[in-house]
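TASK: fixed-backbone design
INPUT:
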C-alpha cells in the first residue's frame, strides 16, 4: 500500500528531503508552503503533490512532516487539531522542539517522531538522528520512518536525551569542517599557492580523506599514523597541535555547543 508523506514547509531542508523520498517506490510525497513558486517547482521536478494548506495536507497524508521554523510550529499544529488522529504520525525536523513539546501542541492526538538532520542533506549526504520513543508508535511506523530516511542518508536511532549531543557534534559539525577547510586554504595562500588552486586542493583533500576513512578497515588513528613519519613534517605539525591543546579546544568548543543546545531547549 502506498505511504503518503506530507511536508509542511518545502524550504531548503524540506525540499532536499522531498527530492530524495520522491524516488522511493510505494511512497507518495505531498507538500505545502507559502512559496507557491517553490511548490510548483518541486511538483514539476519530482512529482510532489502540492496541497493548498497544512490542514488539507494532514488530511491527505499518513505521515506529516513539520519542516517549519520552531517559532512557527505552534500555530501550524494548532490548525491541524481537527485532522490529526491516532492513525497518523507527526514527524518533526524543527530544531529544538522536544517530543514532549510537540505532543503538548497536538494534544497527544497522534504519535510523534523527532528527527534531526544536518545540512549535507541538501546534497543527499545527510546524517539523521531519529527518536522512536513515543509509546503510541506502531511497529509499522517504527519500521517505515528509518527505512525511508536511510534511502537519503545515514540514519541513527537515538534516545532523545542524546539529541543535544548529536546536534553539537553532527548538526553543527559542517560548520566546524568548513572552518578547518578555510584555515587550510588560508595556510596554502599564505605559503604562496593561488587561492583558486588552494580551494580545489583542500576540497579534494577532504573528499579523498573521508573516502579513505570510510573504505578502510583501519581505525582513523591508524590512518593518521600512516602519514606521520618519524621526525617528519607531519608529526612536527601534529606535535604543535598537541602542545597548543588543539584537540582539547575542539572538545571544549563542542561542549559549549552542547550546553547552548540545552539552554535553547529550556526556553
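OUTPUT:
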Amino acid at each position: 500500500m502506498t505511504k503518503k508523506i506530507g511536508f509542511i514547509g518545502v524550504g531548503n531542508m524540506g525540499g532536499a528531503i522531498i527530492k530524495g523520498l520522491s524516488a522511493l517506490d510505494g511512497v507518495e510525497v505531498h507538500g505545502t508552503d507559502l512559496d507557491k513558486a517553490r511548490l510548483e517547482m518541486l511538483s514539476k521536478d519530482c512529482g510532489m503533490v502540492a496541497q493548498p494548506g497544512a490542514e488539507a495536507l494532514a488530511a491527505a497524508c499518513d505521515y506529516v512532516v513539520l519542516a517549519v521554523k520552531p517559532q512557527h510550529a505552534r500555530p501550524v499544529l494548532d490548525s491541524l487539531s481537527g485532522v490529526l488522529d491516532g492513525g497518523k504520525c507527526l514527524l518533526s525536523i524543527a530544531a529544538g522542539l522536544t517530543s514532549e513539546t510537540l505532543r503538548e501542541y497536538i494534544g497527544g492526538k497522534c504519535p510523534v517522531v523527532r528527527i534531526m538532520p544536518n545540512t549535507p542533506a541538501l546534497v543527499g549526504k545527510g546524517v539523521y538522528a531519529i527518536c522512536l520513543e513515543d509509546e503510541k508508535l506502531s511497529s509499522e511506523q517504527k519500521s517505515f520512518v528509518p527505512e525511508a530516511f536511510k534511502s537519503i542518508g545515514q540514519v541513527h536511532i537515538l534516545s532523545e536525551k542524546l539529541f543535544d549531543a548529536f546536534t553539537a557534534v553532527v548538526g553543527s559539525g559542517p560548520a566546524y569542517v568548513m572552518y578547518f577547510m578555510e584555515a587550510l586554504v588560508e595556510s596554502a595562500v599564505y605559503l604562496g599557492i593561488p587561492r583558486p588552486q588552494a580551494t580545489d586542493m583542500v576540497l579534494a583533500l577532504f573528499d579523498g580523506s573521508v573516502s579513505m576513512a570510510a573504505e578502510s578497515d583501519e581505525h582513523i588513528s591508524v590512518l593518521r599514523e600512516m602519514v606521520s613519519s618519524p621526525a617528519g613534517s607531519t608529526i612536527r605539525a601534529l606535535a604543535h597541535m598537541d602542545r597548543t591543546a588543539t584537540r582539547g579546544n575542539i572538545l571544549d568548543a563542542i561542549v559549549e555547543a552542547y550546553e547552548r543546545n540545552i539552554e535553547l531547549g529550556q526556553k
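COMMENT: The chain has a mean pLDDT of 95.
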